[in-house]
Fold this sequence. Notes:
The complex is a heterodimer. Chain A has seven helices and ten strands. By secondary structure, chain A is of the alpha+beta class. In chain A, the strands form two sheets. Chain A has a five-stranded antiparallel β-sheet. In chain A, strand 9 (209-215) and strand 10 (218-222) form a beta hairpin. In chain A, helix 4 packs antiparallel against helix 5. By secondary structure, chain B is of the alpha+beta class. In chain B, strands 1, 4, 5, 6, 7, 8, 9 and 10 form an eight-stranded antiparallel β-sheet that branches. In chain B, strands 11-2-3-12-13 form a five-stranded antiparallel β-sheet. Classes of the chains: A alpha+beta, B alpha+beta.
Amino acid sequence: MFRNQYDTDVTTWSPTGRLFQVEYAMEAVKQGSAAIGLRSRSHVVLASVNKAQSELSSHQRKIFKVDDHIGVAIAGLTADGRVLSRYMRSESINHSFTYESPLPVGRLVVRLADKAQVCTQRSWKRPYGVGLLVGGLDESGAHLYYNCPSGNYFEYQAFAIGSRSQAAKTYLERRFESFNESSREDLIKDAILAIRETLQGETLKSSLCTVSVLGVDEPFHFLDQESIQKVIDTFEKVPEEEEDGGEAEAEAAAAPTEQGGAGDQDVAPMEM
Amino acid sequence: MTFTIPIDNGDALKNAETDSQRTLYPYVTGTSIVAIKYKDGVLMASDMGGSYGSTLRYKNIERVKAIGKHSLLGASGEISDFQEILRYLDELVLNDNMWDDGNSLGPKEVHNYLTRVMYNRRNKFNPLWNTLVLGGVKNGQSYLGMVSMIGVSFEDNHVATGFGNHLARPILRDEWHADLSFEDGVKLLEKCMRVLLYRDRSAINKLQIAKITEEGVTVSQPYSLKTFWEFQAFHNPTAGAQGSW
């Protein structure tokens, strides 16, 4: 994007006070396929779009179980993501071993952020090129965090990262206030709908997405294709139906996308 | 830090230097701790004595301490090692508090941390010469556990260390039941402590009872138990075997 004389080194400041290498690393996150996270008071759902290099290959795994009570979805350089997931698993299990107790997500996220920060302040390192959506449970309830290559982390009610995540974010922005009280099923449905936003009109099939859930009394696990397809069927079943609330709002939310795809309505009813 | 185990005693002189770097025997020791779960939490009793071998040298040692908001730690065995453990836990609790994130170490976490510490030291042949009792309440759940100097660790409704195991636990096995009231719990502990007072030579008649509930920790002021020495058998102790020995 920018061609600068101050962007060769991560340890070189620009005259305007920016570290371009770190910003370029954040660009890498935007290139990865979408990952979405949302949480209620008691559950966290992480979902991602399955992208495969070619028809011959399998798709990249983007969601990882860190522990029974923590999961992570990544976008960007998946190799970096894999390495960081391994670090997270290691921290989590070491804590469990010493204290016989699950590591609070908030504390794991800080360690992750500190690890990322180190790479922004060593001339012989490069920042991690991956954004992580960390979802987990601790004493104070369910949490969702986003960890940035810059070493920053933020807590979210819902968030989306990766390519075409803006569409999903717009969808989530309209609904997020109700998420805290959402049921588990509604949360999953919203996650899948948000995924659909990023697909830009492609038909939503269960093979295209991966969904994972964790909650109070529910350890982290992936939903199988059947369950995902069932949820999809509840809103993709009757395409011309105007009453379908979920569909209608999704329509309105997808501002930059064209809804000409198979099964979707052409008219956006409520808000334009 | 080097740690070698002397293979034969002829090397005692040579190994004196390296041996002084690991614990071989305790010096100032505390005797039993007795603890029980009761209706609102946990009660823990100990006397305030520190023995130097057979001498009852120190009579004001607090062997039960509060750890964080949710736990109580009692120790028997080497007092200096207990103080070392308190320093470790101080650091642990401090770091936990510094997070300031709504999460806090409960009694289970502290117990397991101590188990790891004790077991690791035992593996290096340099034990902390203590038997620890960890009790606490968190989120309405009572917890009571024990760790020995070799890293043996378990939980139970009532625990005791040292002589307490032999003298107090049989009483507790018979008379402990769930949901004891505070008064009944204290009476039960005093019964155990009285037996220990009569029969454990390292026990002194100055004890404290500590209580932990969801609200927090209270450690009683030191007090003494009434004892009775007017048994007939004590009046004429040699009645059954006259004459000098």
